[in-house]
Amino acid sequence: MAFCQSGPAMGYSIFSLIRHALTGNRHWTPVWRDPEPKEFYDTIMVGRGGHGLSTAYYLAKEHGVTDVAVVEKGYLGSGNVGRNTTIIRSNYLLPHNTHFYEKSLQLWEGLEQDINYNAMVSQRGVLNLYHSDSQRDAYARRGNAMRLAGADSELLDREQVRAMVPGLDMENGRFPIRGGLLQRRGGNVRHDAVAWGYARAADRRGVDMLQNTEVIGIRVEGGRVKGVETTRGFIGANRVGLAAAGNSSRVAAMAGLRLPIETHVLQAFVSEAVKPLVHQVVTYGAGHFYISQSDKGGLVFGGDLDGYSSYAQRGNLPLVEDVMESAVQLFPQVSRLRYLRQWGGVMDMSMDGSPIIDRTPIEGLFLNCGWCYGGFKATPASGWCFAHTIATGTAHALNAGFRLDRFATGAVLSEAGHGAQPNKH
Ligand SMILES: Cc1cc2nc3c(=O)[nH]c(=O)nc-3n(C[C@H](O)[C@H](O)[C@H](O)COP(=O)(O)OP(=O)(O)OC[C@H]3O[C@@H](n4cnc5c(N)ncnc54)[C@H](O)[C@@H]3O)c2cc1C
């Protein structure tokens, strides 16, 4: 996949658009190169999803490490970075997570200027509905934790929610809505533009993008990583970073590592386009369901995991029924809509619901995984922290808690509170 820009060193601007418009748009050139793999790189990133791309970009930008290849088995954006429901937020509870995700939200806020790419960052607000007194108290606690970490949060009562989202069925039969926790700075970002934008920005700093290049082995000698075996031959490296999301366990197994990760399917749905109904991202507090509306008018929604482990990027029908039931409970009017598209992605579910960004016991091999169903919003901070860890060999304060050995030491970060049961997250 190659999109066009106005020359390798040219940035996007109103002036370049005018110039191309006046010359018939005949001089756009590919946005990133399609190089042959070199025999050796300083650093190889495995996986060209959001996290592999952002890591490559911040390695180059923040640490001057430009001898980097990002190796991808499919095409750019074929994984979860192009399959998610595009929600960004920093409404977490535990200290490690609140600070990390708030950093990510701050990076989103400056991302388009930073990478010179329109990613359609839309801070339309994320509203988590509550339906009982105890849930309100839990959200008040979460909102306070967010504020202590520098994030914004507001606890809304029932009438404020009614005024903000008039389409909601406040009295819905089973779980009447009592209020909501709002993060105004949360919202949506166009996910494939994030992949394209980071790829272009990393390419411009000298990073090689290698598509259709599957890693089929990781060479380790004397406890040190030497490079990766790929479908296009062996590529040597001083350092290898794994960012394979739903395939993390498979890729890490190539180096003899067994991860505390289960891979589960998550589905998303898009309806036919309608006039504006939901201006925010709204999540259901009495069921696993969330919804937003795309700029084209389609309702974008999703719900729970499919509930079984799989590496197939497709889901099953019982979950479709489950999600539609929740949709109709909150917005009865959508019962007359047709849904147009549905797809699945494979989620790297960690045993405590929090991510891993760390070194591994193998010298030169680094690990980034455990994003569960929330890794899109983490894309900028994940890359920023992973680049720091790879470049310096030590964790940044922001990812110091995301250690691999926490599952052995017991210092887990159980954000979802379900412990080692990813199917219940
Ligand atoms: C339906 C759905 C909805 C979601 N909604 C949200 C949301 O609203 N907000 C949010 O924050 N998160 C959401 N997520 C989660 C988020 O998309 C993921 O956590 C995140 O994208 C994972 O990181 P990534 O982008 O690097 O993954 P990916 O894009 O999956 O990147 C990993 C890449 O590794 C490649 N790879 C795997 N094995 C190999 C190999 N052997 N060799 C080479 N390459 C390999 C894959 O092909 C893939 O491209 C959602 C996910 C899904 C599926």
Can you characterise this structure?
By secondary structure, this protein is α+β, with helices and mostly antiparallel strands. The chain has two domains: 37-86 and 191-261 and 352-424, 3-Layer(bba) Sandwich (FAD/NAD(P)-binding domain), CATH 3.50.50; 118-186 and 262-350, D-Amino Acid Oxidase, subunit A, domain 2 (D-Amino Acid Oxidase, Chain A, domain 2, 2-Layer Sandwich). It has ten helices and 20 strands. The protein has helices at residues 14-22, 50-63, 95-115, 133-148, 158-164, 191-204, 248-253, 317-330, 379-392, 406-409, and strands at 4-5, 29-30, 40-46, 68-71, 87-88, 126-130, 154-157, 179-183, 187-188, 208-210, 215-221, 224-230, 233-242, 261-273, 281-283, 290-293, 298-309, 339-350, 356-359, 365-369. The strands form four sheets. Strands 3, 4, 10, 11, 12, 13, 19 and 20 form an eight-stranded mixed beta sheet that branches. A hairpin with a 4-residue loop joins strand 16 (290-293) and strand 17. Helix 2 (50-63) packs across helix 9 (379-392). The radius of gyration is 22 Å and the shape is globular. The two termini are 35 Å apart. The relative contact order is 0.18. The structure holds flavin-adenine dinucleotide. Flavin-adenine dinucleotide (FAD) binds at residues 46-52, 71-74, 78-81, 83-87, 214-215, 243-247, 251, 266-268, 302, 345, 371, 373-377. Flavin-adenine dinucleotide binds next to helix 2 and strand 14.
